[in-house]
Amino acid sequence: MSLKINYNVSAMIANNSLKLNDNKLTTSLGRLSSGYKINSAKDDAAGLAISRRMNAQLKGLRAASQDAKDGVSVVEIADGALSEVHDILQRMNELSIKSANGTLSDDDRTAIQQEISQLGEEIDRIGQTTEYNSQKLFTGEFDLKGYTNQLDIKVDKYSDAMMYGEYSFAIEAAKDIVFEEDEDGNVGIKKFNGQEENSVTVKRPDGKDEIYKISGDMYHLTFKGDNGDEFMLDVSSYLNKGLGTFADDLDRYVETHEPPLTTPGTATETIIDSDHRELETIDVYEDTATGVKKTVTTTEKQELDEDGTTWKSVTRSITTKYEYENTDNTDPAFGTKMEKTIKEDQVWVEEREKAYLISKAYWKTESNKIDSAEYEDPNNHLKKEINSDGISTYTYTPDAQMDLEIDLTGYGAMTFQVGANESQTLDIRFEKLSMESLGFKYQDSDQTKDMCLNVGTANGALKAIDQITAAIGQVSAMRSRLGAMQNRLEHTDANLATSDENMTAAYSRIMDTDMAEEMSNYSNLQIVSQAATAILAQANERPSQMLQLLQ
Hints:
Layout: H1 9-34, H2 45-99, H3 106-129, E1 131-132, E2 135-136, E3 146-148, E4 154-158, E5 165-171, E6 177-181, E7 187-191, E8 199-203, E9 209-216, E10 220-224, E11 230-234, H4 236-256, E12 261-263, E13 268-273, E14 276-287, E15 292-304, E16 311-325, E17 337-349, E18 352-358, E19 364-365, E20 373-377, E21 382-386, E22 392-396, E23 402-408, E24 414-417, E25 425-428, E26 441-443, E27 449-451, H5 458-511, H6 515-541, H7 546-550
Antiparallel strand pairs: 1-2, 3-23, 4-11, 5-23, 6-7, 6-22, 8-9, 9-10, 10-11, 12-14, 13-14, 14-15, 15-16, 16-17, 17-18, 17-19, 20-21, 21-22, 24-25, 26-27
């Protein structure tokens, strides 16, 4: 054999082997102690990159699962509020049915009306105060948004089936838009663009033309197409601004120009029978400078008290008729003689006031004395006619064509991040909730938006039954849609849990150490390390053998 003293190659080989084995042993110890197969990039560079992405995905899935649970909570709160509104409407329906019964007195209906009014206020309060994490749900903030190119026309709401984008149609010049209001206060559209079909051709975002049927009143018009397409426009400012401003201006003028008493009346007695009489007094107030005249007719029915000498009031009717004529070439109502009559009824029982009712009134022309009335605002091309059968007709005639553009953005709903990646979202919209949105406001005869849910009369109660039934259906539709979204969110959460489970298993296969396999590898490395150590000791002894040759 070759004996050398400068370089102990055998020892170097043994030492290198011992170092390599020690490195492997260190890696194995790290895997056994941490439980991870990959503890640093050098262990598996590609595996580390994959595992980091998967880890981020896993954390995202768990956060998304919590988001889905939050969505379920929001829907539960909304549904709970709507459930209470359902109960309120059912109670209102019960009261309306009871009020329609002919056995009830006016006192009974007055008490029922008081409860109806309070229940209506509670619906408004629920709509304004229902919230989740300080986010109000039913104020319309989280409903789908839409816009038009006209300040006086607004997008009220639209269905989920609508294609997002720009719609357009024309409101044609010199073509009448006609509404009818019957004696019960029901208002409906009769003509649009001069056509009784109540339809219009709308250009959709996809460039196609589609015919939409139109329904509604002077405040809201609903356009319905095929396949569930439906949108509602708020046209209150567009259609009513002239008529409302016209009547309001006249009211304010008369209130600020109250005429003085010019002809005080004296009571005229009419004997009905030995125990009953009627007194009538007519007072006239007039100011020729302002053109305002007021005639107050007081009719009081009295009966003899038990003592047979003292008269006591039973009923009193106060009719106030305002007349106005402007001839000085200025507004309001220049060149038209107008009148407005207000009737107040008072009833006493046992010397106490029992009831006090004020009839609704509106301005009309003097021609109403022959059972018809009309007035027109020439600036807004809006005209009202009252026929002898009690039907009121509102006609709006545009003087120029309006090309209405409607942009349905599809934005505005509450968005829930229900996935680990961008765009994995779910939108839930919450419609506005109020008495008005449920259909309990309408355009009545004095040109104001008043509550039309009035069960003070049997006819009013019958009308209220239909209105409440429609409102119950609307709330049911809202709850149905929210219930479907809640089911979807629960399935979303279940799917996220399944994805989390399967992805965790995949992550584990990349990252986790197989302890049995690694322990076997560790034992093998330990034996190799011990052998390398022994061989290195033997190799280090070889140079000492050279001393024996030098002796």
